[in-house]
Amino acid sequence: MHFRVVQRILGLLLMLFSLTMMPPVAVSVHFADGQTGAFFTSFAITFVAGLLAWLPSRNDRRELRLRDGFLVAAIFWLGLSSFGALPLLLTHFPEMSLADAVFETVSGLTTTGATTLAGLDLLPKSILYYRAQLHWLGGMGIIVLAVAILPMLGVGGMQLYRAETPGPMKDSKLTPRITETAKALWLIYVGLTVLCGLAYWYAGMDAFDAVCHSFATVATGGFSTHDASIAWFNSTQIELIAVVFMFLAGASFSLHFVVWRSRSLTAYWSDPEFRAYTLILLCLTAAGAVTLFFSQHYATLGESLWHSLFHFVSFMTSTGFVASGFDQWPGALPLSLILVSFIGGCAGSTSGGMKVIRWLLLFNQGSREVRRLVHPAAEIPIRLGRSVVPSRVIEAVWGFCVVYIVLFGAMLLVLVATGLDQVTAFSALASSINNMGPGLGSVVADFTQIGATAKWICILAMLLGRLEVFTLLVLFSPSFWRS
Question: Which helix (H) or strand (E) holds 3?
């Protein structure tokens, strides 16, 4: 383990992250909301901490190994959560406890969108902007950003990319160099953000709301500047824009790159994961619309269809925007929205959840086992499109799903033990580990009503979900620390 190399990179990344606290300073000055000191002090503390970590190890240029990459990813996300909470702790409005400030920061960086704040409409503009900015930085991963714009990180960038990028088949590079790969992904990410912001502004949002909501939409985060979320605007046009960009952000950014490079939309439908992602959303939307219409929850079939589409896209992509009181929907629909977050978006997207490709591979594996009952001696490969999936990938998917379920069950028991009712505990944990946001019961609107212990458990769940479990769990393996 090259600890001094890890220390050098962590120092650089902290100094880089400190610079992201300057835009909120500008927002605070522009709106004169009195938060300039909190953000500037946070910038100074974070920058000095990064500088002190970097200076002693600045001349160590050894190769960054895979294990070093995992250590950088895990420690940086934990450290980022701590330093990112500084502005929320230093401000006097709103006043936040340590658990609340860290929760809000982790929720932003992991693009979860669960909040411990109420009365968003009255909060300082710089705080609202900072929350949205956390979403945007966390969306594609600040480590990938660092690899893209810091050539000084040099060799070993792929180790950071592999440790950070979500999905079971993430070893393939879009371009020959990892730096070019990261730049390509961020260009697409920035492009979608700009288009989304302009569309929101054209549809009637003011510039501030358009920027904040574009950050939250493309990052599939869900932090809004209003307590009522997207419903505050009461605009079908704005909701339509949200649906389009949530859907695009839930698809693989690698696939967007392929489409952009080939100048052909056919690459979308030729991708088996994207087809499954689209078909699942269409089926869920249709089932939800029929249920809402025949239960007479909405007056017309069109209205039922629209609300079903918006919320299933929002919850499956783990964005968490709401346009109506979904918790008052009839039957099993509210629970269905929570459960669909376990599917999530595509691998390589900004969405949370277990990812469509894993569910697709599990489905194909189940189908193969059924065929084996009829033909026990047959050699039946698992295919994804025209490609045969290696058995190592299937094993990894099974391992991920088992660990995901076991951890969920263990944390759920602890949450219930803290005094939460079963509905609140289940939905709060599902919302956290799937990086989705809204829940049911006491957390349908925010997480202000749960205790500090429950919040820390949800913080751990958000980090596990964002780093896809193993990036954190591997640190607890004795073999990881052996030379």
Answer: helix 3-19
Q: CB–CB of 110/466 below 8 Å?
A: yes
Q: Residue 224 has what DSSP assignment?
A: -
Does this model's pTM top 0.90? My answer is yes
For 128, residues 6+ apart whose C-beta sits below 8 A from its C-beta are 120, 212, 225
Q: What angle do CA 446, 452, 455 make, to 5 degrees?
A: 55
Distances (CA, A) of 378 to 150, 383, 392, 426: 51, 15, 20, 42
Please say whether the beta carbons of 397 and 362 come within 8 A. yes
State the DSSP code for 226: S
What is the phi/psi pair of residue 92, to 5°?
-95, -10
**CA contacts within 13 A on the Cβ side of 241:** 24
- Using CA atoms, how far apart are residues 75 and 304, in angstroms rounded to an integer? 45
Q: Per residue of the chain (483 residues), give pLDDT as tens.
A: 678 888 988 998 899 999 999 999 999 999 999 999 999 999 999 999 999 999 998 887 777 777 777 888 888 888 899 999 999 999 988 999 999 999 999 999 999 999 999 999 999 999 999 999 999 999 877 656 555 544 434 434 455 555 656 666 555 566 666 677 778 888 899 999 999 999 999 999 999 999 999 999 999 999 999 999 999 999 999 999 999 999 999 999 889 988 988 888 999 999 999 999 999 999 999 999 999 999 999 999 999 999 999 999 999 999 999 998 999 999 899 999 999 999 999 988 999 999 999 999 999 999 999 998 988 888 888 888 888 888 888 888 899 999 999 999 999 999 999 999 999 999 999 999 999 999 999 999 999 999 999 999 999 999 999 888 888 888 888 888 875
| Whole-angstrom distance, CA of residue 92 vs CA of residue 34 | 9
DSSP for 350-403, written as a single string: S--SS-HHHHHHHHHHHHHHHHHHH-TT-----EETTEEPPHHHHHHHHHHHHH
Distant-in-sequence contacts of 243-248, Cβ < 8 A, 24+ apart: 243/309, 243/310, 243/313, 243/314, 245/192, 245/195, 245/196, 245/199, 245/214, 245/217, 245/218, 246/217, 246/220, 246/313, 246/314, 246/317, 246/319, 246/321, 247/281, 247/313, 247/317, 248/192, 248/218
The DSSP bridge pattern shows strands 383-384 and 387-388 to be: antiparallel
Helix axes of 142-149 and 66-84: crossing angle, nearest 10 degrees: 110
State the sign of the Cα–Cα–Cα–Cα dihedral 48, 52, 55, 61.
negative
DSSP state of 225: S
Residue 375, both tokens: 């033909």
Report helix, strand or coil for 220.
coil
